[in-house]
Amino acid sequence: MLSVFHLSLFGFGFIFVFSSVYSETPSTMSIGRSPRSATHLVHHLDASPLMVAADVTDARGLKAPRTLLSEYLWQQTQQHHNQALQSGFVQGIRNASLNPEGFGGYMLQDSVFCYKASNNIAIAESNATDPFIKQFLQKTLKSYQEYYQALFNTWHIEDASGIKLGQACSAYIAHEHNVAMNLNSVYFVVALIPCAKLWPWIGQQIAADTGNFGVYTKWVQENFSPDSSGVTKYETLINNAEAQGVINRNEALEVYTKSMMGEVNFFGSIKTI
Ligand SMILES: *[C@@H]1O[C@H](CO)[C@@H](O)[C@H](O)[C@H]1NC(C)=O
Ligand SMILES: *[C@@H]1O[C@H](CO)[C@@H](O)[C@H](O)[C@H]1NC(C)=O
Q: Measuring CA to CA, which of 94, 175, 201, 235 is 20 to 30 A from 256?
């Protein structure tokens, strides 16, 4: 993040003094939006051939029109969106009544989630053969690393292995690991979409932009911002990937549903009152 090199002329030469905004002194800055729901790096995918629609009409032009993959995935997981919205964590935040221990419990685990996710992104990146997906994953990795470092600083975490994760968070991490290890890296983009789409959707349902959520207002505005324009690009990528035969619909549904359930179960695992 905003690491700054101060160049000072001192004594016989130049001395570089490294300083960081994540210093010992309390900061009034908030950490900002989680890279789990942020989509500002999606432009790295713009030049991918997968962003260009393939001609999916077969030689005889008989191919039946089909629901777009992205719409299919969202429709198939509809009940889970509502489960996430109705979770005690989200409703507690909406109500500004969430037990601070619950919020802390979520953020501590999320710190480790983002740390472990960055390891998984690194695996997906190293496996990626599409140069645009590779570049996107490189930038995404960097943003996760910066974010978990900031969370470690805020929550006073020295070592991730000292944080005991609940079963829901662990299962979500294991799912991403599995996708990174075993599938074409375009499926890693599929695995990222549920959070990137669900959080803005929740934001829309609770009027995140204008509502008053007490002490949680800033967190809600940053993380549940209803702007989902970046998600549309992820969706274009996976829709074209399916049309070009790079993605299989059933496999995509399994990956997507597990990520969506990861969100639902992680929210659902938090003690709220
Ligand atoms: C909402 O807040 C009220 C008190 O202001 C409380 O009684 C109720 O349990 C809260 N609901 C949730 C879901 O946290
Ligand atoms: C992805 O990378 C990991 C670690 O390098 C490797 O073990 C795994 O076989 C790779 N998977 C694919 C699908 O390339």
A: 94
